[in-house]
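Deliverable D4.2, example record:
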Amino acid sequence: MAEEIKGVEGSSPEPTVHTDATVASEISAAAFAGQSSESESVESETRQPLKKRPLYKRPAFLAVAAIVIILAAVFGLRYWLYARAHESTDDAFVDGHIVQVSPKVSGYVSKVYIKSNQEVNQGDLIAEIDARDFEAKLEKAKAALAAGTARLQEARTGVELTRATASANVQQASATVQQARSGVEAQKSAAAAERSRIRQAGAGVATAQANVAEARSQVASAEAEATRAQADVARYQGLFQKDEISRQRLDQAIADARTAAARLDAAHQKVLAAEAQVSEARAAEATAAENARRAQTQVGGAQAGVSEAFGRLAQANTAPQQVAVSQAQAETAGASLAELQAAVRLAELDLSYTKIYAPESGRVTRKAIEEGALVQIGQPLMAIVSGDVWVTANFKESQIGNLQPGQPVELKVDAYPDKVFKGHVDSIQAGTGSAFSLLPAENATGNYVKVVQRVPVKLVFDEQLDSRHLLAPGMSVEPEVRIK
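Output generated by the structure prediction step:
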């Protein structure tokens, strides 16, 4: 065919004779390779001296064209039927659980027990942080807890002691009030008795004064009688000397004079005794008055004692408040003890956090921990990828209407082109990917350009994955969902 075209376009005017084989090759080359056009064929035929039929009218060309059209129709119909019953996308990736391992306490790494890409089981010890500081903090917290326990015990004992002491103080104060009242009554009785003694002493003074007056009147009578008797003695002595009376009569007069003198002396002694009684009665009256004053003063003191006893009783009656204060102190000590217990538990937790365990079974990736390194709280040390994987396929929103949970899916992973995985639709996310992006679009502002959104769909594997086909998060997948 190339030689024929070269001959037509060349400068040689010599005609070329075409055989049936040459015509067949031309038809075949025009149908499958498409290297010449119909105009060139017509031009070549017009230049040939021997006139032939057009290519599109030749039976071989028409047969080949019919076969091509039939094959295209068959394959097109098959593709249309397949596409009508399936939905696919190339925006799909393997997804899985990626657990970031971070420390809960800061410190220097003392031991690392894992390597990159190592398989670990949940609960395996993977690293240790120097625990000496946390052990010291735990001991300190335990010591503070012991001191708090002692304070709580002391506070509880203080409550019991306050309750017992307050009850005893109330009883003692009540007894003191009663005793003070009795003392007031006794002092009042004593004061009344002293006032009675004063009256008695006054009466005694009056009696003694009367006795003195009587004794003095008796002295006057005795003096008169003694004077008369002396006068009789003098007169009788003169008469006896004249022998006018007998000696007996003179002796009788002398005896009467002596008796009168004795009576006079007795009267004088009685006056002195009566005066002494008066002095004694007055002294008794003064003593009674002083005792009465003292008794009255003691009554005031006893009444003050009653007031003091009432004050002590009132203070003792504050026992419930004192007990409440003690109980509040005990409750405060209990709260402090709870706080100290929490501090001990926190210190124990911090100490336990120095041992880092695998939170999930899987493969260690992105290991960023070494012995001797200083790590901080929340610092990513490594990631553990579990074997539980699925596919997240981002279908266009125009495709979501045909997807339903449970529909079968064929999953083709780029890493294994010879393997087709079986699965099904698990769930459809309630929102497009852009709606949950860090900076979602604000379609209400500025110019709006409609962009077809994509909705994440979770596809799960139906078959058990083997170790020969490792599926890791991020691997590209082309899913085909059978919707009919």
